[in-house]
Write a structure and sequence with these properties.
The complex is a heterodimer. Chain A is mainly α. Helix content of chain A is 70%, strand content 1%. Chain A is built from 13 helices and 2 strands. Chain A has helices at 3-37, 45-63, 66-88, 95-114, 137-142, 147-165, 167-177, 179-184, 189-213, 227-237, 242-264, 271-275, 277-289; strands at residues 128-129, 144-145. In chain A, strands 1-2 form a two-stranded antiparallel ribbon. In chain A, helix 1 (3-37) packs across helix 6, helix 3 (66-88) packs antiparallel against helix 4 (95-114) and helix 3 packs antiparallel against helix 9. Chain A is globular, with a radius of gyration of 20 Å. In chain A, 55% of the residues are buried. By secondary structure, chain B is mostly helical. Chain B is built from 15 helices and no strands. Chain B has helices spanning 14-53, 58-71, 73-98, 106-124, 130-159, 163-183, 217-234, 236-246, 248-253, 258-285, 296-306, 311-326, 328-335, 340-356, 371-374. Classes of the chains: A mainly alpha, B mainly alpha.
């Protein structure tokens, strides 16, 4: 294999990988962004993601319809989100700790109910071939894109617009920046946060369904490698902006695709280091973007992690 | 806790006043015992209902849980074996928690500790006698874990990086480092199916506490728990730590070295988790491999929260959770439930427990009595 062809293969594999790996990130980070905009943090999205993945796979297997699986995964995620939202309104309950607890709870539920679905093969989500016409095999494989990727992009654009230009967006941002101001507007802070956390959970569940129904495309207990938790860091990196969440997700996807891409041309040395690349990148980004002097710029004022 | 200061006039009859002080102290003190117990009971009821919906017998579940965890001498030893690393990883959460930091990266510190213990042992196992090498391994493990979590403390203090997320990312990085070294440079060619480092040597293994099958890691965990309890509750360092946890800004205004406190308590915490890794390698596996990633770091979080970050209380809670985990296999075999059922039960306890936090200070029975009630 010549030098150029190998490089091209890596490049295509990385582009394809970036698109595939980033899709769950897009959904989870947008969900987390939505939740955090309301002034609350949900660290439990990792559990939501894995539970969503399991539910989607099971429903797809039982019903034969992967899209029904995606929907049910979202509903399961919304349910876990609603539990978080409801519990956090009680006095003296810490939203960070509850998030960790619900993460293990979601994982427990997923592993408990997911046991029978590790073996069977469920129908997977279809993909849209965007580059079959080029006749280049590796490019064609790279650009088989799942529709959920485009849904994610549309969602990011929509959320970005809605935060700025709608009444609901204004209420959400006010609640996140100052609960007192929101109360003065006559808004029920608890209800806004409950709805935002529920919606965030729905998106994380959909992100999970992508994992089990498209890429890697099967259900196993080691399916997620912490995407749900990295999404929390990703939202901080993106400074609570849906469009930047989208770009950050793609970047994470590319970082996560380096390892498998290099493996495809036979470089296996240091595979685990490339696997860890997204974590290292996140950490450095957090170090670079955090500040000891008060909250981060553009952070919701009520958010616990930035205070 | 000065819960008896009710502004009452000086007592004329001392014995009576002393007695009501005692009653009041009992009432407020029992709050920290009764509410977690209620939370555990509610979780058990909820889990029973869950099992009934699935058509399983909850009575059988809990009796198997008892039998698998604490029913026989064998299951006791099994539970204690699992409790040993749990005590240490829970300490890794509890100590920073007292300084107001939520550290959830104990798993990574444990893995790194185990890895470094093996790494120092491999080249030196024939050169040094066990008397020298074994403490050296433990120190390396503690240093590795302490450095790892200490870094999180430094990031937190110097750059304001959120310690919860940072410690978790560090945990994933530690696991990647171990996988890389164990499958690459440190791999023992003899370990075909499960990549591992070479064995640390029979003579360097930690032995069992005489009369049991439980290794000395349990004793080390209990001793460390007691020491850290004394440090937190009875020393100026611990007091400064608690002040920092209560209000970091106020602590700084008081002239406390907040940064040093945060970083040092993170380092001590990481050293505890690293020591857990040492015992996993030197007492159980005999080499470092992926078996180190057994979830002790994550269950430790739960144990610490259930013990309300009190090092002494961590010991019985860790034994309880070690027992629940030990019973998993038995429940799987006898009831046909997935092995994750104990994980689900544990996490349900965790959720209900955190919800029960809302009850503190709200139940009348635990409050100091009013003047009318006293007489």
């Amino acid at each position: 294999m010549s030098e150029n062809a190998a490089l091209l293969t890596v490049l295509f594999a990385m582009i394809g990988g970036a698109i595939r790996v980033s899709t769950p990130f897009i959904f989870v980070s947008l969900g987390e962004c939505l939740t955090e905009k309301s002034g609350r943090i949900n660290l439990g999205l990792e559990g939501t993601l894995v539970f969503g993945a399991m539910a989607a796979y099971a429903i797809s297997f039982l019903s034969g319809s992967p899209w029904l699986g995606v929907f049910v995964a979202g509903c399961c995620g919304a349910l876990l989100g609603a539990v978080h939202g409801w519990v956090c309104k009680l006095p003296r309950v810490n939203d960070v700790a509850i998030g960790i607890a619900l993460m293990t709870f979601g994982l427990g539920l997923a592993f408990f109910f997911g046991k029978p679905y590790i073996q069977p093969a469920a129908p997977r989500l279809p993909s849209i071939p965007l580059a079959d016409w080029t006749g280049n095999a590796s490019l064609a494989t790279a650009l088989k894109v799942n529709p959920l990727f485009f849904v994610g992009i549309a969602l990011a654009v929509f959320l970005s617009w809605a935060f700025r230009n709608t009444r609901t967006g204004l209420i959400l941002r006010t609640t996140g920046d100052s609960a007192a101001a929101a109360r003065a507007m006559g808004v029920s802070v608890d209800r806004v946060r409950l709805l935002a956390t529920t919606a965030g959970g729905f998106l994380a569940g959909v992100g999970g369904s992508f994992l089990s129904l498209y890429y890697p495309g099967s259900w196993s207990e080691g399916l997620s490698s912490g995407q749900g938790l990295m999404a929390v860091a990703l939202v901080i990196f993106a400074r609570w902006d849906p469009m930047r969440c989208l770009f950050a997700s793609m970047m994470f996807g590319a970082a996560g695709a380096i390892g498998p891409a290099l493996q495809s041309i036979g470089i296996t040395q240091g595979y685990y280091f490339f696997n860890a690349a997204p974590y290292v990148v996140t950490l450095f980004i957090m170090i670079a973007s955090s500040s000891t002097k008060g909250a981060l710029a553009s952070a919701p004022g009520e958010l616990a992690v930035t205070r | 806790m000065t819960d008896t200061a009710q502004g009452s006039p000086a007592p004329t009859t001392l014995p009576l006043a002393a007695r009501s002080d005692f009653v009041d102290r009992l009432r407020s003190g029992s709050e920290y015992v009764v509410i977690p117990l209620i939370a555990v009971a509610i979780s058990a009821v909820l889990f029973s209902m869950f099992l009934l919906v699935l058509g399983k017998d909850p009575v059988e579940f809990f009796s198997l849980l008892w039998r698998g965890g604490f029913g026989t001498a064998f299951s006791w030893q099994n539970s204690l074996l699992r409790a040993a690393p749990l005590i240490l990883t829970a300490l890794c959460v509890a100590l920073p928690a007292r300084a107001g930091l939520v550290i959830i990266g104990g798993e990574g510190a444990l893995v790194l500790g185990g890895l470094f213990a093996a790494m120092i042992a491999l080249p030196l196992k024939n050169a040094l006698p066990p008397v020298v090498l074994m403490p050296l391994m433990a120190i390396m493990a503690m240093a590795a874990g302490g450095f790892w979590i200490g870094l999180v403390g430094i990031m937190r203090h110097a750059r304001g990086v959120n310690e919860t997320i940072a410690s978790l990312l560090m945990s994933y990085i530690a696991i990647a480092i171990m996988n890389f070294l164990v499958e690459g440079p440190l791999r023992d060619p003899a370990s075909a199916n499960k990549p591992s480092t070479g064995p640390i040597g029979e003579g360097n293994m930690v032995t069992a506490i005489p009369g049991t099958d439980v290794h000395w890691g349990l004793a080390a965990g209990i001793i460390l728990a007691v020491i850290l309890w004394i440090v937190i509750d009875r020393t100026t360092y611990g007091f400064a730590l608690r002040v920092t946890g209560g209000n970091a800004r106020a602590a700084k205004a008081q002239g406390l070295p907040v940064g040093t406190l945060m970083v040092s308590c993170c380092a001590i915490a990481g050293a505890c988790a690293g020591l857990a890794g040492y015992f996993e390698v030197a007492a159980i596996h005999g080499k470092a491999n992926a078996s180190l990633i057994a979830g002790y770091g994550f269950t430790g979080i739960l144990v610490a929260f259930l013990a309300r970050h009190n090092p002494i209380v961590i010991v019985p809670v860790a034994i309880l959770f070690g027992g629940i985990a030990a019973a998993g296999g038995l429940i799987q075999r006898r009831m046909g439930l997935p092995d994750a059922s104990v994980l689900l039960f544990q996490s349900l306890i965790f959720v209900v427990l955190l919800i029960s936090e809302t009850l503190y200070g709200r139940l009348r029975i635990f409050q100091p009595r009013t003047e009318a009630e006293r007489t």
